[in-house]
Amino acid sequence: MNRLLKTKNSGSLVPGYLLLPGLFCLLMYAAAVEAQALPQTDLWLAELNHGRPGIPAKISTRTGYNNQPHFSEDGAVIFYTREQPGDETSVQTDVAAFRLSTQTTSMINHTPLSEYSPTPIPGRNALSVIQVEPDQKQRLWSIDIANGRMELLLPGIEPVGYHAWINASQVAMFILGDSFSLQVASLGKAEAIIIADNIGRTIRRHPHSGEVLFVDKTPQPWQIAAFDPETGQTRQIMPLFPEIEDFTVDSNGNYWSGNGSKLYRRQPGDSRWELMTNMSAFGVGQITRLAVSPTVNHIVLVGNHIAPD
Asked: How many CB atoms lie within 10 A of CB 87?
């Protein structure tokens, strides 16, 4: 795992090296996205009662790709990526919003391009998204929630796969390349700093320490790891289930992950993952991405739809 280097005198962070993504890799990835249909996934919402999930309800109303959920900062809305109707040769996605109080879904944007990974930007009534542009570049944009207006945030950094905000001006990103890497960039800066390579797709900010949490795929089994933006150091936290690269952390500092239809939680200091529930009886298949509300009273997860047992 690569570390940030610190200058001896100032202690400021400087990159160990900078990634120059190959055009061939970008084109191959874009071609694969266009050529293959997105997986058919649903969003499921369950109440949490003292950390225990209740019966999940499917909240996605359209078949196809419903994925990448994030709660709003007040926990009132779940933003997610929703596949839109199209022809058989292309995929197009926009950002949807599910409001918990009314149990209704509305669209944040309608564009001819595809947007992924809608994520609330700290301190703003806006979301950051990855947009697949006409030339197949994947860059980080913002969407104003009130009017849908879009703004390019980091013009020189691509291809971006996933991301999480460290604070209102710094963002951690999964960057595609010969090896998928974790990079950190600041708004207004032209370059990103590489933190680690061979990472998984999940990136989260720890609610207490402010560390960037990610999946280190170098060891076996894969590990949840943490990068400290203040010190430039990384550390391993806990192993995941074999071949699992999706997890989240709630505002109490507890970790959540899925393995098949089973939902697990691991509290700080625990030596193993605790089984919270098996959702197969409710039609939830392979659990992938997850998000927990800021008040830890709801959990939303992505799962393949299966016939109930």
From this structure: 7
- From the list 141, 30, 164, the residue with the least C-alpha distance to 95 is 141
Q: What is the C-alpha to C-alpha distance for residues 258 and 245, in angstroms, rounded to an integer?
A: 10
Distance CA 234, CA 169 (A): 21
d(CA 235, CA 224): 9
- Among residues 195, 231, 236, the alpha carbon closest in space to that of 215 is found at 236
Predicted structure pTM score: 0.88
- How many Å separate Cα 217 from the centre of its chain? 16
How many whole angstroms separate alpha carbon 131 and alpha carbon 189? 19
Question: Residue 24: enclosing H or E segment and its boundaries?
Answer: helix 23-35
**What are the C-alpha distances in Å from 13 to residues 99, 140, 167, 195, 229?**
41, 23, 17, 11, 9
For the segment 222-259, what is each residue's pLDDT rounded down to a tens digit?
Answer: 999 999 999 999 999 999 999 999 999 999 999 999 99
Token reading at 302: 């992505």
Please name the fold of domain 19-305.
Answer: Neuraminidase (2.120.10)
Asked if pLDDT for residue 30 goes beyond 60, the answer is: no
**CB-based burial, 43-66: b 16+ in 10 Å, e otherwise:** bbbbebeebebeebeebbeeebbb
